[in-house]
Design brief:
By secondary structure, the protein is of the alpha+beta class. The chain has two domains: 2-82, 2-Layer Sandwich (Alpha-Beta Plaits); 101-237, Alpha-Beta Plaits (2-Layer Sandwich), CATH 3.30.70.660. The protein has five helices and eleven strands. The strands form three sheets. Strands 3, 6, 7, 8, 9, 10 and 11 form a seven-stranded mixed sheet that branches. It has a two-stranded antiparallel sheet with strand order 1-5.
Length: 238
Amino acid sequence: MEYDGTKFHGFQRQKELISVQGLMEDSLLKIAQENVTVHGSGRTDAGVHAIGQVTHFDLMNNIPPFKLREGLNYCMSEKGCSVLDMSIVSDDFHARFQAKSRTYIYKILNRRPPSPLYDQRVWHIKNPLNIDLMQEAAKYFIGRHDFSAFRCIHCQVTSPIKTMAQCDVIEKDGLIEIHISSRSFLHNQIRIMAGTLVQIGLGKEKAIWVKQLLEAGDRRKSGQTAPPYGLYFAKVIY
């Protein structure tokens, strides 16, 4: 499924706030007359978009997947959320706990003029970025590291150790994209990584700064937290 993150207060259901999970559960209640819990493969924050979110739910009502998808899109598409595909899976499948890899993409528009077409869809950086330097720095993220310097102070995960399988900086369709893959991430980790790479791309720090930050483990020394609207939850592998 995909959604416009700027229209939601994140994926997870929250009392009196609009969320992706809440919208989907409310829509299923209207369609199937059942109270169900929707489980997402990742809990995106407010403002973060998705182009490849995967969810699952248990339904007693025997509605064909095609009709269920059409019903959900009828209820949700005008509110910023769309189901791209739907199928019946085994009873023991879990969208979150069985995910082996998650890929996020951070998108940057790097030019002087802003773009109304990309409003709230990319991080607009006016000054030129050195992509080669950003790619060199990104390589330091790959592998198993202590990412204490790249998580927000409110992150409740016990261990800051994560393994990055991919961190690439590429040019695509006039944008700069940062592709990052791992089984799981710390809170705000990708956005802080993106903010750090932008600092390097602007020439404010050298590529080896990433290595130094990983070793120091101090959030106060790393780059800014990039805006949420440039981030896309892109893919899940099972």
